Amino acid sequence: MNASDSDEDVYNERTALVPSETPAVPSYRPDDLSMPDDLPTQRAKPGLSRRGGPAAVDGSGGGGGSDQEVDADDEELTLKYGAKHVIMLFIPVTLCMAVVVATIKSVSFYTEKTDQQLIYTPFTENTASVGRRLLNSVLNTIIMISVIVVMTIFLVVLYKYRCYKFIHGWLILSSLMLLFWFSFMYLGEVFKTYNVAVDYPTVGVIIWNFGAVGMICIHWKGPLPLQQAYLILISALMALVFIKYLPEWSAWVILGAISVYDLVAVLSPKGPLRMLVETAQERNEPIFPALIYSSAMMWTVGMASPMEAQRSEHQSDEEAEQSGGGVEPERRQFPEDELEEDRGVKLGLGDFIFYSVLVGKAAATGGDWNTTLACFVAILIGLCLTLLLLAIFKKALPALPISITFGLVFYFSTDFLVQPFMDNLAAHQFYI
Amino acid sequence: MTASVFFGCTFIAFGPAIALFLFTIAREPLRVIFLIAGAFFWLVSLLLSSLVWFISVQISNKESAAQQKGLLIFGVVLCVLLQETFLGASTRTENTVSGLGFGFMSGAFSVVNILADSVGPGTVGIHGDSQHYFLSSAFMTMAIILLHMFWGVVFFDACEKQRWWAVGAVVASHLVVSCLTFQNPEYVNSLVPTYVILLLMGVWAFYSAGGSLRNLKLCLTCKDKDFLLANHRPR
Predict the structure, then answer these.
(1) Of B10, B223, B235, nearest to B116 (Cα)?
(2) A262 an active-site residue?
(3) Which of A223, A312, A327, B65 can bridge A50 by disulfide, Cβ–Cβ 3.0-4.6 Å?
């Protein structure tokens, strides 16, 4: 993917994480999620990728000639700017995980054993032998990942052949379901847990308002913090559904497999996500920005370009599908003499979802807070490292692999090794 | 008992640390990242020492309580040494904020499960154990968190000025504090000396960080604008 040269002129701000390419295209993830009753749904694929094209050359425009001046002062500024972006992602990821963990710990519905499973994980784990259970979970994972791959390719094909209306409709359907149906279920379970009696008309008003404002914010326009809040909430809801309906071992194997898939899909030349990014860049349009969490607004004030018009048209399409983006730096769309704009960073919703699934599962199994804390810190550090790599390589990167690897390593090691040690210490009240 | 004990113990244990976080760290994104990196390093050191402890338990005689306790003590000592090693590594690359990160994680791991249990129904010490389990745990945790931070500051300063005796003193005081807790539940024997060490380390850290009586006086009477915590540059 090569940024067109003309775009490089537009960016002259010096930033650590800004790529200078054509519209920030979030990496895409098809949504595939199915309810036990087989409604067609979509699942957000994870994928934090930094969409950006090749190097943040915009710095090179302004900074190229001024090497001497740049030095320590610049580096410090760059470091601070980069750190600011890292924190801009830490906060929403933390919030999403906090919502999921709080729900798991208080609402027992999401941790109750259920015989219902998603149709994508048909093999049961209630088998007698360990080997059989392991085999079933691996088979479940293979099916799930194949479904994701097929959906992704289908989406890329749709995008390539410009079937925007189809994609648009698909996205709207899936966000409708999330915002109305899942939140209704969630509200019901919360009321049951706290034994609060609420009548249907009240619930109807609440859910209607919640859902309608959510649809508007996500698919059309709305204040940025509100949009961010809604995206965090729907990611949390989706993660809760996964935690409830994925069988134990399958969930862990799926987490591992999806990180590998994310790595392959975003980095390999034939990967579907990469192809999607390239197509979007060729057409100079952003892919599905609405299902990518973006930490800063894209300012287009004063910019009356055909690119802008195109972009706003496609915004709605992109929502539902692309939640799996990756981290990307946002692109500034306006010419040099406009105000400097904080570009911000983008992270796909699927990344939020799978991070929260990992931490939620750690909270659900065992009742032990140390494991949850360890996974939380591991994921944040993984995200930090990913963003660091992003700043170095300045192109779309998958957000899942590093974080999920750290998370899985810390989950299993804390659960099996650290927990007995800490339990013994706490029993004697020894402190380390 | 439940909610009030929970909130009381939580604020005792984490109050000073959170105040420190809010006033000195929360505004600087870079420091927050270093804080989390510090927590991560602590976690890694704990992981390694748990691994060693776990292996040693597996190959030992599980029936003998004395041996198990001995192994636990060995685990504690090893953990402390590993923590100091990682503290050294992280303060080289980062700064003193990592000490607070260590503290947060250490405190959290020690006390979070206890806090979670304090919410639920139950009676403390129903089998004859100490009634003050929750309260003493909270105070101990607060001391540990602050101590970790002071150790971080002194360690960083000592490494910068190549004062190896200071590094040794930090490691030794950490070992002393941990070994004091072996006397729990005789809380007087463990908490009081720990707080004395906390005070001493606090004073030492204050002087290492460039404080002095003059600065303190100016700060307390709000005359020294430069000394406001929020304006401090990261060390």
Answers:
(1) B10
(2) yes
(3) A327
